[in-house]
Amino acid sequence: MVENLQIIMINKTTPQPSLFSSLTDQLNPRHPLYLLANKIDWRRFEEAFSPLYCAVNGRPAKPIRLMCGLLILKHVRNLSDESVVEQWSENAYYQYFCGMLEFTPSYPCNASELVHFRKRVGENGMELILSESIRVNQE
Question: Which of 55, 71, 103, 117 could cysteine-pair with 67, CB 3.0–4.6 Å?
């Protein structure tokens, strides 16, 4: 009898997802940020902002989707640069929204890099980012 009980207990255990497995396997696809991430046309940002970067010299820049995603999250959640960077390191939905495939417990960038990115894309770039976030929120 005890032997059967032990077998049942073993069969009842389910494997826990690895911290390093894909975020798409771990997250609820009905979560608002998950849905929003899949509605945004991220290519618009890549096409608009890629020419602002030099491909051959200097330190590699942070991905455009990451930086745009952080700015959208900052706007939508009414956060400071410091808060959005800090919360990103703790929130798998923020990371998925910004294009990450796996959870990363470290900061995505220094908060001052958001200031530099805003200056790089300028007023027109910021309008593009905000208009896209407004467009998908109205759908």
Answer: 117
SS3 111: helix
Residue (of 24, 33, 63) closest to 45 by Cα position: 63
pTM tops 0.85: no
Task: Please tell me the predicted confidence (pLDDT) of residue 11.
Answer: 47
Rg, Å, the chain Cα set: 19
- For residues 9 and 7, give the distance between their C-alpha atoms in angstroms, rounded to a whole number: 5
Choose among 104, 96, 103, 106: nearest CA to 33.
96
Distance CA 121, CA 127 (A): 10
CA angle 80, 137, 107 (to 5 degrees): 35
Residue 8's CB is within 10 A of a number of other CB atoms, namely 9
* Contact yes or no for 17/26 (Cβ under 8 A): yes
Reduced to 3 states, what is the DSSP secondary structure of residue 110? coil
Looking at residues 64-75, what average pLDDT do you find? Answer: 97
Work out the angle between the directed axes of helices 111-138 and 64-77 (0-180°, nearest 10).
70
